[in-house]
Design a protein that fits this description.
By secondary structure, the protein is an alpha+beta fold. 38% of the residues lie in helices and 15% in strands. It is globular, with a radius of gyration of 19 Å.
């Protein structure tokens, strides 16, 4: 990881975009893992990849966000400029227009069923965006949009490591259901990282989707994981109905959620309560039968 702070951003902006050099630079309160984000004044932001593996997302978002924005019912980040390496920072970076709102994980006063419905509708609209020339799922998308079997070894290794701590038989049954079908038609757009930190809400409703660094065209099942990571109870049904995908897509989605929960527990990179909660939800509720 590269050390990224406000002083670095000020130096990059002053050297490459002097028209914005007078704007104050402040780190956003909640940072993602892939990129570091800083506000430039009230209306702009600077976004810097935190490691080399996240660099491809810069050019991909610059190319495709304007295209996707024309087909989606809610805002997505608007690229304004692309910066070059400098001031000791080795990667390209970007300037975007700031989108107001709180992240879904931090917001209060939500109409949760309505948000679940909003998100399902947004993902359905994303699938309808034209795919000609779009980036085919692969390494650049961390294999989101590919078949979940790409992570089969990691699932088995995690279940071995967690022997006695999780219901391995139930998990293997879920995984078997996930890998016995495939997306049957032409590839469609997927976001690739539909987490609560990448969804903005305002006045209790979904207001925007951000961080398309793992987007591409392929199987959209990976985008359904909020059914278990965020939705609870009737929210899952609202999300399911708005998404409008068949049963086999949900089985693959369940596999994606299972994989992420298992490897997060094994990694020990943070508290295990949340991935353990997600794992319990995945094992308990298929969303569709």
């Amino acid at each position: 990881m590269v050390q990224i702070d406000a002083a670095l951003v000020r130096a990059l902006v002053a050297a490459q975009f002097p028209q914005w050099a007078h704007l104050p630079v402040t780190a956003v309160a909640r940072q993602g893992w892939d990129n570091r984000t800083f506000r430039l004044g009230e209306h702009l932001l600077a976004r810097l990849p935190s490691a080399e593996g996240y660099v491809p997302g810069v050019a991909k978002e610059d190319r495709w966000l304007p295209v996707l924005a024309r087909h989606l019912p809610l805002p997505v980040p608007e690229p304004l400029a692309t910066g070059a390496p400098g001031a000791g920072y080795p990667y390209p970076w970007s300037v975007r227009r700031w989108l107001p709102g709180d992240t879904l994980e931090a917001a209060d006063g939500l109409d949760r069923v309505a948000v679940a419905r909003d998100l399902g509708g947004l993902l359905a609209a994303l699938r309808e965006a034209p795919t000609a020339g779009g980036p085919v799922a692969g390494r650049h998308s961390a294999f989101r949009g590919c078949h979940p079997s790409v992570y089969g070894d990691e699932v088995e290794q995690a279940l071995t490591a967690l022997d006695g701590r999780v219901d391995a038989a139930a998990a293997r049954k879920v995984w078997a259901g996930a890998v016995t079908s495939a997306w049957p038609t032409a590839p469609v757009w997927f976001h690739g990282d539909v987490s609560a930190g990448n969804l903005l809400v305002a006045r209790g409703r979904l207001a925007a989707m951000i961080d398309f660094g793992q987007c591409g065209v392929g199987d959209p099942a990976c985008d359904l994981v909020p059914a278990w990571t965020w939705c609870v109870g009737v929210e899952r049904a609202a999300f399911r109905d708005a998404v409008g995908l068949p049963v086999d897509a949900w089985r693959r989605a369940r596999g994606w959620a299972l994989w992420k929960a298992l490897v997060t527990i094994v990694s020990g990179s943070g508290p295990v309560a949340e991935p353990s909660r997600v794992l319990a939800a995945v094992l308990a509720d298929p969303v569709v039968e």
